[in-house]
Sequence to fold (214 residues):
Amino acid sequence: MTMKRLMIGLAMAVLPLMATTASAQLLMKKYYDGRQDATYYLAGAVPEREGKIVFTKEIEAQGKSARDLFYKLGQWADLRYTPNTTRGEWTEASFFHNYEYAGVTVADVDEGTLVCQGDEELVFTNKVLNRDATRTNYILRLSVRDGHVTAEISQIYFTYVFVEEPERMAAEEWISDREAFDKKGRLLKSVARFRVKTVDLKDELFKEIEEAVR
Fold:
């Protein structure tokens, strides 16, 4: 076990003692919770392309032009990635927080491309006197053509704040198949929450995109 995993594991163990009034300023996204089987998050759940974690979804939108899809997704993205967004109360399941770097960074209607910078809180536990979360950054790229959308999530990073010296960690070094399991194929406790909630975030984003282009 690396020192980084050990420190985060210890931090998680004492989190119930660390809640402060500052917690009320944080937000949470209501992530997809439709998983019935924990095996959904095991080997193969976090795909890689040339050594980098990349989630991809091909979405059919029959009868809709590329321009129509672009504007529908643009409206969704402007709302979803509004920086410094607060939604709901922190004790509620729908609690959500975008940090200051969230936003739409590319919107090219001629190329049919939208690029969004994710900068948000990924919440593991959200209860009074028991709160655990990480700051998460990622890139969401949306490419549209007539009747079709390609969604791609990549460049995922975590900054875990419940340690003395927070460090920005690439997802490839933390939740990839080669890093997330022990020699017996069991998901390591120190990284399980990061992997599970990242997969949940991916599912929720793809679900929202599908709904946006209906």
